[in-house]
Specification:
Helix content is about 40%, strand content about 15%. The protein contains 15 helices and 14 strands. The protein has helices spanning about 15-30, 60-70, 85-95, 105-115, 120-130, 140-150, 195-200, 215-220, 235-240, 255-265, 275-280, 295-300, 305-310, 315-325, 335-345, and strands at about 1-5, 35-40, 45-50, 50-55, 75-80, 100, 135-140, 155, 180-185, 205-210, 225-230, 245-250, 270, 285-290. The strands form three sheets. A six-stranded parallel beta sheet has the order 2-1-5-6-7-8, sandwiched between helices. A six-stranded parallel beta sheet has the order 11-10-9-12-13-14, with helices on both faces. Helix 1 (about 15-30) packs across helix 14 (about 315-325) and helix 4 (about 105-115) packs antiparallel against helix 5 (about 120-130).
């Protein structure tokens, strides 16, 4: 089956959305499907206001139509709600094609934090975008309930996974002192609440891996932290294994892929009891949730790393991809036989 996935989130960005789409594409290809990722690198683009690392493609329906027709997809999935997503959505609607969508980020909350736009306005726009599709894929039950309450008609679960060949408890570690190490991994941006972590009164050291629009200010304000910049793959896995606790201070994430990567490496998670952690950390062997983040950090130090790794390793991309295949729908008139083959291959 030929599967077209449209996304504004792609290289050189390093985040959970990009990682999810890359790993899903890999798994789909292993199952014998032909995948095309339509992304901003294929078009003229401009930097996103307040976040120049993200490129916004300058596209309309006429621009994307040729890309679509050259590929001749059996399935269309629109992962993001940017200009590219709207353009491909428009072509699909014009042609009466079915398509699915993904809800990866709490965009209304992000926009409110950045420019003060009421979340109700953003949700109204997103509701229009997603309700035209056959399914809106969300990563957790809590996020599914949130969208249902906001009037989204067809949310379905599409969880996440861990690359067990990379993120595992056995492997190299960084040299360090005997003091506890508390680690943050992720984008350095206002919506991630990294400052809340760096401001905590904790014993030992604070390590930070990631970049983003808040990077320079955070480095200036918290020079005692150890800054690693952007890491991925084996280097990131080594960092996870070297820490005692991975701290997840965000209040706005829909999932938090770094949490399951950390747990798969044997490092427990400390987080707030909010959307994302409340589903990812549903087993207390993997981490600790508490409204007081400091309390969660100190309690997480006491968890058994072997049990943490066992829990984190239960999240697989193979299982995640089967959820994706169950949610997509072939374009009307196209054969669904290959879809059935892909699902039965698991």
């Amino acid at each position: 089956m030929k599967i077209l996935i449209a996304t504004e989130a792609w290289d050189p960005q390093v985040n959970g959305v990009v990682r999810t789409l890359k790993m899903t594409s890999r798994e789909l290809t292993r199952l014998g499907h032909d995948v095309l990722i339509v992304n901003p690198s294929q078009f003229r683009s401009i930097p996103c206001p307040t976040y120049p690392e993200i490129r916004l493609p300058l596209v309309g329906r006429a621009t994307v139509r040729k890309v679509i027709d050259d590929f001749r997809p059996d399935v269309v999935h629109i992962a993001t709600e940017g200009p590219l997503g709207w353009a491909i959505r428009g072509v699909a609607i014009d042609r009466g094609w079915s398509f699915s969508t993904g809800y990866h980020s709490r965009f209304p909350e992000y926009v409110q934090m950045r420019i003060g736009l009421p979340v109700g306005l953003s949700y109204a726009l997103l509701r229009k975008f997603h309700n035209a599709g056959v399914a809106t894929m969300v990563p957790t039950p809590a996020m599914l309930s949130t969208l249902q309450e906001r009037g989204f008609k067809r949310p379905v679960i599409w969880s996440r996974g861990v690359d067990g060949e990379v993120f595992r408890a056995k492997g190299q570690r960084l040299a360090r002192t005997g003091r506890p190490v508390f680690l943050y991994v992720g984008r350095l941006a206002v919506e991630k609440s990294v400052e809340d972590f760096l401001s905590l009164d904790l014993p030992g050291e604070k390590w930070v891996a990631g970049e983003g629009p808040s990077s320079a200010e955070l480095r200036r304000r918290f020079p005692a932290a150890r800054w690693f910049g952007l890491l991925s793959g084996l280097e990131l896995a080594r960092l996870y294994r070297s820490a005692d606790v991975m701290v997840f201070p965000s209040k706005t994430d829909t999932f938090g892929l770094v949490m399951i990567e950390s747990m798969a490496c044997g490092t427990p998670v400390a987080a707030l009891p909010v959307t994302g952690p409340i589903d990812v950390l549903r087993d207390p062997r993997g981490g600790v949730m508490n409204p007081d983040l400091r309390t969660a950090c100190l309690a997480a130090l006491k968890l058994d790393r072997r049990e943490v790794a066992d829990y984190g390793g239960r999240y697989t991309w193979a299982a995640s991809t089967q959820q994706f295949l169950s949610a997509i729908q072939p374009i009307q008139g196209r054969s669904g036989a290959e879809l059935a083959v892909g699902i039965s291959a698991s």
